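Mods, move this if it's the wrong board.
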Amino acid sequence: MGTIKNGTSVYDIKDYLSKEIAPTYFKDIADMNEMNVGLFGYITEILSTTINDGYFAITSLFKEIFPIQAELPESIYNHATIFQIDNLMATAASVPFTIMMSEEALLKNGINVDGNITQFDMDSEMVFNVDGIPFMLDYDVRVTSKRTLEGTIHSAYYIMDHNNSVSPLLNPYIRTSTYVNDNGKRYVVLAVTLHQVEKKTITDTIIMNDKINMVSMEYTFEGQLANFEIFYKAPGDLTYTQLTKKLMNTEKLDKPFCFYKIVDDHKLQIEFSNDERYFTPKYNSEIYIQLYTTKGKNGNFTTYDGTDIEIIGKADRYPNNRGMIFMGTVTGESVGGYDRKDIEELRNDVVKAYSTIKSFTTTNDLQIYFNNIKHREQNEILFMKKRDDAFERLYSTFILFRDADQNVIPTNTLDIKIESTDIDTYMEQSKRNIIKAGKIYRYKGSDKSVAVIDKTLSLKTNLDGYENNDFIYINPFLTVVCANPLSVAFYLNSVNDNITTLYQPTDTKSFNQFIVNSINIKRDALNGEDGYMITTKIAPSAMLPKEAFKLIEDDTLVLPSYKTFKNPTDGYQYIDNENLKVVLTLHGEENRIKRLIDMDLYGFDEDYYFFKKFIKTNDYVTLKNQFQLTEGMLDPTTGTDSTDPVLVDGTNCKMELLTFYQYPDTTEQQLHKFNSLPLLEHFTLTNRYTMSKDTPIRFIIPIPEVRSYVQYANRGPNGKYGFRLEMIPLIKANYFKLPNARERFMNSFRSIYDYIRKSLDLLTNNFHIDIKFFNTYGYSKFYFKHEDLEEATNPLDKINISISFDAKYTFTTDAEDMTKRLKTYIQKYIESRDISLVSSPSLYISNLIAGIKENFPSIKFIKFNGINKYGPSMQTLESLVNETNVIQGVIETSKVIPEYLNVDHTIKNGKRTAQIFINILD
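Not the wrong board. Structure tokens:
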């Protein structure tokens, strides 16, 4: 019997039933047309349609197994769940907003809790419509008012009695002030942050089957889901417990939790475990769910100067809200709103996870994973298997950096030689030699493979004179060579990090509270800074205490013992009355406080006090990444200056920030553990902040993935040996003198490095990564003219090339604009992946000129003059490092540094100029 072929249509099936099967069983049918009518035709139609539908259903469902072919949204979301892709929700925009209430109404509607203290609670269910776009508070707000002899003062905070994942709030306190209008009426003003969400609350009851103890519920929503929170109450309980949300098919928990899965764009599924060893809900339990939906990017706007602001109050939970009139205004941009991923974006994420199974076993797996950062950072990352034997399994990772204008950043990877006299510090006890970051290197004579330190140069030197004459590099890493055992380690010690602070409750009953959102730690080691500047700003929750500082006027007595500062916001000199203190505590083993850092007040404005402190280091790093700080700290037992260096965790230093306030009335002073120090004996501890684990304090960043072999070099005049280090990443020194270039490069490198660190856990079979930089600035080893390629003689003199043409334009052409566009085209052509990357790196001048003629018809003719020092005979450039030679083993990948052909840019007076020369002919 014949078979139905793949792709058969319903007509083919009907024809097959009529012509192949029917004649076998119905011999008496003389006219075949009778098979298409009557009962026989009816049955044939049903059978053919059913078979076709079944075939189509089976093939369609089979396609849904594979993410790259899946079409049903539910299938793609299921695949995302399998691979634990959890960033499926939209992100709500946030906007700064001021809420204003009449002080009289606030006191009238508030609840008296303690004589002169009144509390008023605001419901987070209230809606703030800004030009028709709804916004909401993250939490309920409590305003506390205190009557004093000088008047009523107010403070406010969020009632954070549950977790709201939409909110990034870490500190409950709200900046509060008082406004008096022209009629003398007083208003209380709260500076809050609203999120562009709408909230839907659903209450449900858990009812389980007696035989199958499984609870699964689905809820629909309109718009884009930004978040949901779920709360549980067992029979007999008086309060709800918030459940931890876990993506479907992840590990179970002992504490109350639920599984969730986003089924499609408008459906959420909640499930509970049926395993009695873990949390399972009780029969007839109650749950309620808060669904937050958002408009995503449509909730963003730059400024809002309109008046279409409507505040819709809620009084269901707080009846005293009913008598309040709320006013408000937008005080900044609405930003941060992002739409949920569409199906195609989600499919791409799933395909990437599917293709690597979230583990990397091949070079291609790594390349797929790092394509993400290529698109985000505009950098290129190339992988080669460097070594795979019984001793080591290693991938080389070559990074090509681009700046904000898509220009290639000049880098190289070279061997460097360090003389014994180049070593900044030698620690005898640990045998560690410290070579500070920011050293300037240049090629050693005619040796094109090794660079040495030039002590006469630094970043402070004018390096413009070396353009086109020499290659001048800088090492951005702190380099530590250990003499016993012989090894080398690299660290980044130039930092500019904002560390998020986390509010921690204290036993204090201080009315004055201070809001601290972050601290900043900054050091520019490349410019020779020998320490870290720590800065922060703090905002009083109520009002700035007037006794904290005093304006220095002509008749003001200023004693030598006074602390004074020039306020940068108004330019006046002030005395710091030292009634407000910010103290950092440095912690060591067993959370023991090792040092105190008493920060200095250096400025203020209408909202904040500004504090800073500079602490010094000698850059000593131990094998366990302990880092030595030397000056700018206090002894925690006496509160006096500490003269002994201290070792702290250099990569995750535990630090706390404490705020203290000295009340004029000593009866308000409260006891704390620092009262024994003369520095703080009369102060009240108001607030305590720890540092977020997401933004650890890092004085140094170890870069163990920058690997190098070290060997002893020639003995110096002092009788000590130097060192030779193999394959060290370097950057053109003068590039770092461009505005903001250092900071941009460091941020880009750290972003890539953090991404690489995450990939290490996914590498299989004990493979590791070795980070190097592309050669984009320096002598070439692998580029040759075509005729020299086979013998590998006479390589290109430098990889960052200059190129020259003669060109004649048509009479009506704007020569200046044409030349600018032509230079841009030439640079993009030379620096394209097809020309300069490893697959087949080659430059053919004939192809370049053909492209110019095709894209610029207003050019009458163009003539190639030469590259670098070579004349027009340099028509071809080809690299030995290409895909074929790598696969065939012609190139030893353990030693190769890929070269990226690019247009040279000279740097003069802080400006870059592309070395593309167009001589316009008349």
